[in-house]
């Protein structure tokens, strides 16, 4: 059982005051549009199949040589289920380097170019509903676009992407960046 592989992701975690602000916003969005609950995060390494032991080791190694970095919200946007409505994070060299750094440690090759984002709502909504939800974000928190914050911790999460209820998702470990 020790060498069983599961699907993991690495998340950059916003500081508590930003996380609390996002949680309040997402609670309102879920009450109006539905969708599962999840913690605020910026995916740094997408779903990758590994043993828990390897994934934890890679996280620790990656975090040891990664400094806290600045992130800034560029826009409120919409996309597919896991990016139904999200905050696009400005792809600054610092943000992109953090993604590349962690991906290298995990041996992860992204199927698409890294697009840093902080999802607000997961769901299979129509384009009209997504746009309504996107506009609702701007009504609920007009100051989000332009919001800048420091990412000073990354976490390893078990994230079975087949489980759209997210009930099987689990926090494994958080590492503070120095």
Automatic annotation (TrEMBL):
<dbReference type="Pfam" id="PF07823">
    <property type="entry name" value="CPDase"/>
</dbReference>
<dbReference type="GO" id="GO:0004113">
    <property type="term" value="F:2',3'-cyclic-nucleotide 3'-phosphodiesterase activity"/>
</dbReference>
<dbReference type="InterPro" id="IPR012386">
    <property type="entry name" value="Cyclic-nucl_3Pdiesterase"/>
</dbReference>
<dbReference type="InterPro" id="IPR009097">
    <property type="entry name" value="Cyclic_Pdiesterase"/>
</dbReference>
<protein>
    <recommendedName>
        <fullName>Cyclic phosphodiesterase</fullName>
    </recommendedName>
</protein>
<dbReference type="GO" id="GO:0009187">
    <property type="term" value="P:cyclic nucleotide metabolic process"/>
</dbReference>
């Amino acid at each position: 059982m020790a060498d069983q592989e599961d699907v993991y992701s690495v998340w950059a975690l916003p500081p508590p005051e930003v996380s609390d602000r996002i949680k309040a916003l997402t609670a309102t969005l879920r009450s109006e549009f539905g969708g599962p609950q999840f913690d605020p995060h910026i995916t740094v390494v997408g779903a990758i199949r590994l043993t828990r032991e390897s994934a934890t080791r890679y996280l620790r190694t990656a975090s040891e040589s990664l400094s806290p970095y600045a992130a800034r919200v560029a826009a409120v946007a919409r996309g597919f289920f896991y990016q139904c409505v999200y905050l696009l994070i400005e792809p600054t060299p610092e943000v992109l380097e953090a993604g590349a750094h962690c991906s290298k440690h995990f041996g992860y090759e992204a199927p698409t170019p890294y697009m840093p984002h902080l999802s607000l709502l997961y769901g299979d909504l129509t384009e009209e509903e997504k746009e309504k939800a996107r506009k609702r974000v701007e009504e609920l928190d007009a100051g989000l676009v332009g919001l800048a914050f420091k990412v000073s911790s990354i976490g390893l999460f078990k994230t079975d992407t087949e489980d759209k209820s997210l009930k099987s998702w689990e926090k494994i470990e958080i590492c503070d960046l120095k």
